[in-house]
Write a structure and sequence with these properties.
Elements lengths: L8 E4 L15 E5 L4 E5 L6 H17 L3 E6 L1 H7 L14 E6 L4 E5 L13 H4 L2 H16 L5 E11 L6 H11 L4 E7 L2 E7 L2 E6 L2 E5 L1 E6 L4 H13 L1 H19 L8 E10 L3 E11 L6 H8 L7 E2 L1 H12 L9 E6 L3 E6 L3 E5 L2 E10 L5 H23 L3
Helix pairs in contact: 1-2, 1-8, 4-10, 5-10
């Protein structure tokens, strides 16, 4: 196929929980070629909360007009809904970038073959943050012991030089080659290109039913089958990992209840080990029946930012994140995906991301901190999670 760089939006996924719009079509993606309207939001220091609510009102207005919606809502805009002031930043990336289009403008696309390459070495820009991250974990543990929070999600960002990259369909294929995931997405913006290879379902709405599949708990896959089996058994039995996952499940239950019928919230799965190409994850599933399935604004106001990337309790954990990180997260840890009339809402959590800008790439990774956490172990987990982004960057450069 001819590779073109003028496609605004591309997505694809693999496995039974892939994007709703892809259905059962294997090795296919979706592209968006034209839009009716586009809204980009950059939060300011005074009106940030009203800006966040206005964006969701615009989303609702588009949906009420029968239009489809696609894009991302960044972590900081989600935090703004809860009254958390945005961190100062000079990035060209907007805090949210959404577009409205006719459903027929979303077209199928075949993806070219791409061979995944070994990961690049851990960049110095990440390694130098080890002392800071260990101290941040120590400070988070102090907040937990003081009863301020029970859990907090901490993240780090790192920049790498970017020499060149592939065309957009190849970028999407590279995400799936490196780590086959249900929710792969490429989003082209004026600031650059956002690549996301997420395993985590944030919200899926079909009719009156809504579900979320939070992920907490990670272990690297092993090449030897016996060692791999031992690794997943250790993960499933880990008191620390199960506590982390269970607390997030309780928060998701609370969030969904705010927009759902009384007593309709159910936990359909708890701490199930799920294999991916390089990692094991513990995943749970929460389901509910919405009071008003047409009210997207109410659902998003009740659930943003995603529970799994904040902590417990959510609002206080978000305050602790702002205090410890003192950094703008941007699209990372937000929500991204699409909302299609007659099909449904399908959003992934904005994890496993790389942002491509002229001359540089930015990756972000995080880890959940609970009372049983150890600073060095959390740092090592952070480095393991970074490998996916580093393999993607190596693959994007490969063959050129």
């Amino acid at each position: 196929m001819a590779h073109r760089d003028d496609w605004l939006f591309l997505l694809a996924g693999e496995g039974p929980r892939r994007w709703l719009a892809l259905g059962d079509r294997p090795a296919r993606g979706l592209r968006l070629r034209s839009v009716r309207e586009r809204v980009q939001v950059r939060l300011d220091g005074k009106e940030f909360q009203s800006q966040a609510h206005a964006l969701l009102a615009q989303w609702q207005s588009w949906r009420d007009a029968g239009l489809a919606v696609a894009g991302y809502v960044g972590y900081d805009l989600g935090a703004a809904l809860e009254g958390i002031a945005p961190q100062p930043h000079d990035s060209a990336w907007p805090d949210a970038d959404l577009c409205a289009f006719a459903p027929g403008d979303l077209q199928p696309v075949d993806l070219p073959p791409v061979v995944a390459l070994p990961a690049l070495p851990l960049p110095e820009s990440l390694l130098v943050q080890a002392p800071w991250f260990r101290q941040a974990v120590t400070d988070a543990l102090a907040a937990i012991r003081a009863g301020e929070v029970y859990q907090v999600n901490l993240s780090a960002a790192a920049e790498l030089p970017l020499r060149h990259t592939r065309a957009l369909p190849e970028q999407l294929a590279a995400i799936l080659a490196v780590q086959p995931v249900p929710y792969a997405m490429v989003w082209k913006a004026a600031a650059g290109t956002l690549l996301s290879g997420s395993m985590e379902q944030f919200l899926r709405v079909q009719g009156r039913q809504v579900q979320s599949r939070p992920i907490k708990g990670t272990a690297p896959r092993q090449q030897d089958p016996e060692r791999d089996r031992a690794a997943v058994l250790d993960l499933a039995a880990s008191v620390k990992e199960r506590a982390e996952n269970t607390m997030i499940v309780d928060m998701v239950r609370n969030d969904l209840q705010r927009a759902s019928l009384w007593q309709s919230v159910q936990v359909a799965a708890l701490c199930e080990p799920v294999p991916y190409a390089t990692l094991w994850h513990l995943e749970s599933e929460v389901r509910a029946t919405l009071r008003d399935p047409s009210d997207r604004a109410a659902l998003l106001e009740a659930t943003l930012p995603p529970a799994s990337v904040t902590g417990c309790p959510k609002i206080q954990a978000t305050r602790v994140i702002a205090r410890l990180e003192q950094r703008w997260r941007g699209p990372y840890c937000g929500a991204l995906g699409l909302d299609l009339p007659d099909i449904g809402l399908d959003l992934a959590v904005g994890i496993r991301q790389v942002w491509l800008e002229p001359g540089r790439a930015t990756l972000q990774v995080g880890a959940g901190i609970v009372a049983q956490s150890e600073p060095e172990r959390e740092w090592q987990e952070l480095c393991v999670k970074a490998q996916g982004a580093l393999r993607l960057l190596a693959t994007l450069h490969g063959g050129r």
